[in-house]
Write a structure and sequence with these properties.
Blueprint: E1 2-5, E2 9-12, H1 19-25, E3 33-37, E4 40-41, E5 53-58
Length: about 60
């Protein structure tokens, strides 16, 4: 299955992959990013579908 990541291009993933699989495949830490589809956040357990268009946003925190 292929998904398109804004600013990254297309990535090939196994069928039935979840958002957490995508995040790990791209080398991000699960706590440091939010994955959006149509500006709506997806849970890490959300199952991806072929040809989805996603955006990955880094989360920055501080104190």
């Amino acid at each position: 299955m292929k998904v398109e990541i804004e600013g990254e291009g297309e990535i090939e993933l196994p069928e039935n992959s979840k958002v957490s699989t995508l995040v790990k495949e791209l080398g991000f830490h699960l706590d440091n990013v939010i994955v959006l589809q149509d500006d709506e956040p997806l849970s890490l357990e959300h199952e991806l579908k072929d040809d989805m268009q996603l955006k990955i946003v880094s989360v920055v925190s501080g104190g």
